[in-house]
Design brief:
With 296 residues, the protein is an alpha/beta fold. The chain has a single domain, classed as TIM Barrel, CATH 3.20.20.220. The chain has eleven helices and eight strands. It has an eight-stranded parallel β-barrel with strand order 1-2-3-4-5-6-7-8, surrounded by four helices. Helix 5 runs parallel beside helix 6 and helix 10 packs across helix 11. The two termini are 28 Å apart. 42% of the residues are buried. Bound molecules: flavin-adenine dinucleotide. The site of flavin-adenine dinucleotide (FAD) has 26 residues, from strand 3, strand 4, helix 5, helix 6 and strand 6.
Length: 296
């Protein structure tokens, strides 16, 4: 199913993000995680691209296996950083031949410690990749958005202008970077609507399961941990289970408020693990959290 159509019709709408494992053992473990989450009937699962040394062939094979054998709709992330147009065309041809209808078109991050460098005939920004996809393929195209602005952007206004460029280039839907304060997401949504970006915008939530790890992530992606949440996490940091319990409770409360604020669904960064996401989504389903939606 195309995500644009799913977003207009499917409720409740949950999606789960996974990263491709390096080897066959990791792939088997990931498929077990996906099968554990399948009863929650996600609208799609997404497969990240570019990190961890996975090859193009492995990513395409994994996307096909999830879609064809497990029966879940896949969104394949694709990044243009460092790739030539021919390499990108080969990837998109493979995905299209494999029956993948949805892609999340991204620039990608520079290699660790290195600077961003486009390939000589490649693309520098996601809007260029989206325009190429729109001209040459029939994918439903997603793009990234940043409630606390992209870390490289000099200002929120400039990031918003480039978000509009991605919408104008032909993006069909948006998925947000992770955040822990719903107001930053609602503020992005209001500002995006004000500049004419009217695409469905899925908030991305990452349940905290490990405090050190989340601190590394937020430092990389420019997200903020609100002071009160930080205090509660600090108080539990030597107790793994207590951190996980708080992470699940906090993300559940975030999700309920977002759904009541009118978001079309929630995208979960699962880190290839099922328990936290399963607990949160199960509680949202049990409480029919999406039914009491009020539009802002
Ligand atoms: C939901 C989600 C999923 C992700 N999945 C992956 C993944 O699978 N693999 C991976 O490697 N990374 C992934 N990332 C990280 C992403 O690649 C990085 O955040 C990257 O630095 C920016 O990607 P982008 O597509 O937003 O880039 P862009 O939209 O190109 O923006 C990058 C920066 O350049 C600015 N900019 C945008 N367009 C222009 C322009 N035309 N001219 C000048 N400046 C411009 C923006 O304001 C921003 O500061 C993901 C991020 C999100 C939010």
């Amino acid at each position: 199913m195309r995500i644009k159509d799913a977003l207009a019709t499917v409720r409740p709408f949950f999606s789960f993000e996974f990263f491709p494992p390096r080897d066959d053992a990791g792939s088997r473990q990931l498929l077990a995680t996906i099968e554990a989450l399948q009863p929650l009937r996600p609208a799609f699962v997404s497969i990240t691209y570019g990190a961890g040394g996975s090859t193009r062939a492995r990513i395409v094979a994994l996307a096909k296996e999830i879609q064809q054998q497990i029966g879940l709709t896949v969104v394949a992330h694709v990044t243009c950083v460092g790739a030539s147009r021919a390499e990108l065309r080969a990837l998109f041809d493979d995905l299209a031949r494999g029956g993948i209808e949805n892609v999340l078109a991204l620039r990608g991050d520079p290699p660790k410690g290195g600077a961003f460098k486009a390939a000589p005939d490649g693309f520098s920004h996601a809007n260029e990749l989206i325009a190429m996809l729109r001209r040459n393929y029939d994918f439903c195209i997603g793009a990234a958005c940043y409630p606390e602005k992209h870390p490289e952007a000099p200002s929120f206004e400039s990031d918003l202008a480039f978000l509009k460029a991605k919408a104008d280039a032909g993006a069909d839907f948006l998925v947000s970077q992770l955040f822990f304060d719903n107001e930053v997401f609602f503020a992005l949504e209001r500002r995006a609507r004000a500049v004419g970006v009217d695409l469905p915008m899925l908030p991305g939530l990452m349940p905290i399961t490990n405090f050190d790890q989340i601190q590394r992530f937020v430092a990389m992606c420019g997200a903020t941990i609100p002071p009160k949440l930080r205090v509660e996490m600090e108080a539990r940091k030597r107790d793994v289970e207590a951190v996980q319990d708080l992470g699940v409770a906090y993300a559940s409360m975030q999700a309920i408020e977002l759904l009541r604020g009118g978001v079309p669904g929630i995208h979960f960064y699962t880190l290839n693990r099922s328990p936290a996401t399963r607990a949160i989504v199960s509680s949202l389903l049990a409480a029919s959290a999406w039914r009491s939606t009020i539009m802002r």
